[in-house]
Amino acid sequence: MSTRLPTFGNVGLAETLQNRRLLAGIVVFVVLALYPAMTLNAYHTRLLTWIMCFAIAAMGFNIVLGYTGLLSFGHAAFFGTGMYTVVLVMGRVGITDLVAVMVIAMVVSGLVGAIIGVLTVKTHEIYFALLTLALAQLLYILAVRDIGGLTRGTDGIGVTRPDFFGIPISELPAQIYLLGFYYHVVLVALAATIVLLWFVLRSPFGLTLKMIRENETRAEMTGVPVLRYRVYSMILSAMVVGLGGALYAVLIGHITPEYLDWTMSGEIVFMALLGGIGTFFGPVVGAGGFILLQELALSYTEYWHFTMGLVLFIVVLTLRENGIWGGAKTLVERLNDRRGEQ
Amino acid sequence: MIPETLLGQPFVLGHTFNGLYFAALLFFASVGLTLVFGILNLLNMAHAAFYGLGAYIAVWTLNNIGDITTTMVALLLVLVIVIPLAVFVLAAALDKTVFAPLYEIEPVYQLLATFGVILMLDDIIKYLWGATPISVDAATNPSRQLGTIDLLGSSVSVYRSFVILIAVCCAVGLYLMFVKTKIGKISQAMSEDYEMVQMLGINVTRVRVLIFSLSIAIAALGGALFVPFAVATPAVTLEYVLLSFAVIVIGGLGSLKGVVVASLIIGMVRSFGIAYVPAIELAIVFALMVVVIIAKPEGLFGDEGVVE
Amino acid sequence: MRKSRLSRRTYLKGAAALSGVSMTAGCALLDEDLGQETIEGIPDEPFRIAQILFESGPAAFYGEQAMNATDMLVDQINAEGGLLGEREIEIVDRLDEGAGLDSLISDVQAIAQEGEVDMLFSIISSAHVLGVAPAANDQQMPFLVTMPGTYQLFEENPEMDHVVRTAGSNASGAIGAVRMVEQMDDIETVVTIDPDYAWGHDHQEMFETALENVRPDIDIVESRYPDLGETDYSAHVSAIASQEPDLLFSSLWGGDTATFVSQGVDGGLFDQVGEALLIGDTGAPLLRSLGGDMPENVWLGGRAGYQPTYRYDEDEDHQQFVDDYYDRYGEYPGWGAYHDWAGLKTLQEGVERAVSIIGDWPTGDQLMAAMNDISVEMPHGQHTMRGPQAAAPAVFGRPTEDHDFPVDHPLTTDFEFIAATEVNPPTGVPTMEWVEEIEPL
Questions:
Q1: Is the ipTM of this complex over 0.85?
Q2: What is the domain count for chain B?
Q3: Which chain regions cross the lipid bilayer (chain A) (predicted)?
């Protein structure tokens, strides 16, 4: 196959590639969609749902790190805001429709993103990392302190299951709700996020963000309102991460301030990096890799921190921004090239 | 709402003392971090993890030393000389192996790779000493043995006064090293222009190993001095990682003066804050960080060299 | 020490190799059997328990004791043939709470799915139990909760029929402390210091509310909340000492109490306060780690009489437990150990009760039902379950150097006992409502 490719024109090549990717994407989507019904395995389904929630969050996070070039150590703020919004909107306001709840969670996370974005807009590198960390920690402390009696401190709050367009689907047994309904909601949300970000990050908006990452001064000189774009990217990122958190809140069923702590931010960074922050799909792969690795390490050894630390260290040193996804892609390309040569 | 009794002088003295003591610990935990960044351009997130390691080594040593000696001088020498020396050697070995490749990569990746080091060190400590908090036995615990003296109506810990004294000595010693010695002057030059120093034919790797190991040894010294009055827990590591970053950001990356001033600010604000407004204890350090970074992104002394 | 999780690993491989999904599974949609089958006779294979506790982090202090006690007691029970003398117990898995709530819930799901565990056991953190217990209940996975004290567990989830808790609620410690203060003379001012999370805030709130009803003449002048796992209390110590309160109340627990008291002694704290009530499940381990530094004007204790010196001579079972624990581990058991002892005793009684009624080994549902409203003999007398929740008395003691035990640290003596009925709400009454209406004795 590959030997024939050069005979296509440039456009044709790109199209074919894209179609093949699209095809592969659709196949993966269909397989995933059928998985719970095929296996009836609640544990797997739950694990996959867990991974997909974090895949959304890691993709959202990567808008800021991978595309705008800023390392945030405060994205737990958005993840946690998404989670707590779900609880408060359902428990206090009384809105129980899934879609409405998710939209509100995204808006609220976006607002928090706007505030943090504006406050951090002038800082770079380590200062940006530490300022986002400190701001997120302040939010964490508000939750721990149970300010306004909203969060119930470290005991956390239980989440009830939302309904869907007036259908009282939450009354189904927990197992069936997950296998037959909620898993698919998260799957669709992930697919939508991927499609949306694919276009957004290839739009002029995404290209502008990349320009800022490459060279902020030059971007400024060519007339890009850098500061405003940085805030925009933070808001977009916060909304997507917030969606991940909101979806995860329903899955986990109980929310504690731990999800706002900086170690949570660290986990999201870890996932994106593991998959590859310089690639589009890297964060999705990274979320899966991270969670499976952690579960595996936990089941083999009580020294799972060491395992995770070692993996992080090696990935950073060897693969850098490519991550395992980028690394795998390069490997496949090389193999193809070699086959082509022969 | 300040209770009137608190305004009485003896307690102001007590709070000041607590603040100084905490500042001393912060200084030990963070001075090396800022030096390694300022001179060697390495942002080592795992730096303060060696503070935790020092604490565990000290508990272990003091709890096993009872058969050999219980003389106070010997105990203090172990804390101030023996443990830092041992960690110095360990750090030199680590610099040549684990940390060597990190000097070449961008700060963001340095942060992440060294975060991995924290995780590993965490479990090494857990493997060696367990996950349960451990403390120094009373018989060989200098803090308990030295007791307290009465000063102007406050009870003042002799041991903690000693720790503050060591911190002052350490700060003065570092200052003199940078100003007076050849190695100090080379280091300063390296912080300004690393390549230039290299081209002068100076063996920068040797200077690097020295500065790195010295920095780590000071962190371990801090942990060793910290533990007799407190307790070694796995959480100490992450707590001081965060605190040390707060210190160097507020003080300004790479500035010795900045570390001293920022340690004092955080130490005092925390001590008086806890005393008078206990509800905001947790938030103090982060609020300070936010204010300083927004108002002065380079930190208080960030645009100056290592020693001005 | 750690048991393997072979079957779970297989699952993980399956998840990882998603592409290898077998398409032949058919579409037998959601027809899984959620009903329980009955069990005939006494099964030959062991009764399999998965234990949940902190193996890492500051709370591992508690976890270690619980693990030690469980290992010892399971060995003893099995030496006699097992439950009912016929079915051995096997600890097939231990889940580390240090891995966080996500992992715990996911693990519980996996365990339920595999069906190779008969019961979940232990758990320490109140935050974790509030998440894990409803999840286990959803999976119809029996869960015997032994340590957390949050009164919200059953008040928030009244429908849980697969969960029982053998630990007293935190009300017994807090209200027990109020009953102690009620009898004290010369108390006008109180300072409270509690860890900055739900356990601490709940205790403080119950203590303050009830104290206002019982002794309106006493004033809580200040409430402090240091971090959980704080290593430097000196600023708090100076501030409290400067207040010179007549009473110091604290629900700090585990290593935190040890650090606080030791630094308090250093800062002259206990010379400045009249009495101190330390109710954070503090007993022998605290006294051991403090060595000779324990001040004398202190009451130690909390929910249930879980101190090795308490009714040691009067209660043979207790004596046996304490001596065995000491022989095996070289120290005296702390609260974590006692809590799991109560849990295993309740399990034994529950099995016996169920089998005596139905003749066969109970299913998960039946076993849990049998443990409701049961009572077992503990050092403080009958430890009684009201529905799925134990109602424990409160016991406090004074530290003393003067004892006959082969250790060189103080132990507790001069015990005060406050009956369970005085420190727990009547069945069906929400804890906080009861606390608000509490009356003087």
A1: yes
A2: 1
A3: 22-40, 47-67, 73-91, 98-120, 126-144, 181-201, 231-256, 268-291, 303-319
